[in-house]
Amino acid sequence: MELLVFHLEIAALSAILVLLYAARGRLGLAPIYMAVGVLMGFALIGSRLQVAVPVVGGGHVRYASAGYLPLMLGTIALVYTLEGTREARRMVLAFVAVKVLVNLLKSLLSLRIASDPARIDQFARGPWTRIGLQSSFVSTVAILGAALVTVIVYQWLLNRARTMPTVVALTAAMVAAMLTDGVLYAGLLGRIGKLDAHFASKFTAGFAVAVPMALYITWQLRCAPDNVKAGIFERGAFELVDLRRQLSSMRQLLSAQQAQFENLKTMFGRYVAPDVVQELIDEPSQLELGGEVREVTILFTDIRGYSTLSEAMNPQQIIELLNRYFGAMSKHLDVERGTIIEFEGDAILAVFGAPLSQPDHAQRAVRAATAMLDEVDALNREFDADGTAEAWQALGIDEFRMRVGIHSGTVVVGNVGSETRSKYAVIGDTVNTAARVEQLNKRLSTWILLTDATASRLGGDDRLRDMGTHDVRGRKEPVHVYTIGDSGPVRSGLAEQPQSA
């Protein structure tokens, strides 16, 4: 009867451990780790008090080795099966760490008892004072060996016979582990001749622990997807102690992430200069969802006569022209570290002073604009050489030209959108004003106009020509604008008259 009660006890404790693990969705794995620590502590008490239980075939064994040890080993197998090798490795390390702590506490307790033996008479002082560092170290090694053997044998049996019931594989693994514990402990202390394996008792105790855990594992695997089940059976028997596969997987993961990072870096580099990308990588908080008020300079451009061109050219020709044009313009924006917000039709919207702060944002925008106009001259020479210009002249377009509007002021800059899809944007009247000033070029027969807000930041640039104050659509207040040098009709050799859009 006592033997049956013992097995029912550890079967019930095994079921409690399963329930603690099943609650991981709400509580995490902390309770199961704490339970292992409690078992370790009670194993100490059981071994010191020399609590014994009957075994099959007669005789007695210590309650700690026959009860608490299989419970701890079964818990490791449970975590290994359903959480994976990494978590099982953590549990084994926690197992050893708790055992080392228990050994330390045992030693402190022994010293306390030895210093005042009168207080421990009623607790059988002898077992508590006979605590040696050697036996504590050996017991730690033996338990570590048992934990590793549990997982290795268990996985080996699963790999050899996938149809083997989980309870059989788990029981056999724990029996092998408990035998390993006994052999290591006795062998390392030089007591191998006194080893009493009590094989029958280890088997029945292991079976009592394995039944609740195996039933739970079987139920979980039955509900798991096929790829999860396949992953469990494809693990190597020595994967728990073989770090090479883990290191190889980590290297592959890091390599894949590095490739993804470089790809994203390259893609983002299409919007801003590479060194700006690097600064954003170094300070990623600048790209968090949200906005901030910033003093910037907005540059807005479009192509003169684009509507006429798009009507006369097929879509493929339009795409080729725009790509050629945008590529030529973007390099000058990159040089001045401007951020291209978007290409909209034939228009370019760029900002200077965001996302990275640039105190000289106005100067950068003007330098970029004048370089872009020079680049248009270079494009025209290419178009003359390849015959493109002649075809455009037949449409009434004497040469390829773009207009630029620049305005400085306050905007809200930042990422707008959702957590899954966002866009870097500049929002405010400053953006609208830059677009209206660009359109004002048509009325004033110029190629570049900048407002007095931008001109005042240039520090008395003698290239500026005052073009007066003008009303623009969408604004109540007129804007005072300037052009640069001979960027108007004189530069192109055209008559001073507004050009068609």
List keywords for this structure.
501 residues; disordered C terminus; 10 strands; elongated; two-stranded antiparallel sheet; Alpha-Beta Plaits; alpha+beta; 2 domains; single chain
Number of domains: 2
Mean pLDDT across the residues is: 79
Count of beta strands: 10
Uncertain regions spanning at least 5 consecutive residues: 488-501
**Helical element count?**
19
The helicity comes to 55-70%
Gross geometry: elongated
Order of helices and strands: HHHEEHHHHHHHHHEHHEEHHEEHEHEEH
The first-to-last residue Cα distance is 102 Å
Structural class: alpha+beta
Question: Oligomerization state of this entry?
Answer: single chain
Major sheet details = 8 strands, mixed
Structure report:
The structure is a single chain. With 501 residues, the protein is an alpha+beta fold. It folds into two domains: 2-241, no CATH class; 285-492, Nucleotide cyclase, GGDEF domain (Alpha-Beta Plaits, 2-Layer Sandwich). Helix content is 61%, strand content 14%. It is built from 19 helices and ten strands. Strand 6 (402-417) and strand 7 (422-427) form a beta hairpin. Helix 1 runs parallel beside helix 9. The chain is elongated. 34% of the residues are buried.
Task: Give the topology, please.
Layout: H1 2-22, H2 24-27, H3 30-49, E1 52-54, E2 60-62, H4 63-83, H5 85-115, H6 125-129, H7 133-160, H8 166-188, H9 199-223, H10 226-233, H11 243-268, H12 274-282, E3 290-303, H13 306-312, H14 315-335, E4 339-344, E5 347-352, H15 361-386, H16 388-393, E6 402-417, E7 422-427, H17 429-444, E8 448-451, H18 452-455, E9 464-470, E10 479-484, H19 489-492
Parallel strand pairs: 6-8
Antiparallel strand pairs: 1-2, 3-5, 3-6, 4-5, 6-7, 8-10, 9-10
Helix pairs in contact: 1-4, 1-9, 3-4, 3-5, 4-5, 4-7, 4-8, 4-9, 5-7, 7-8, 8-9, 14-15
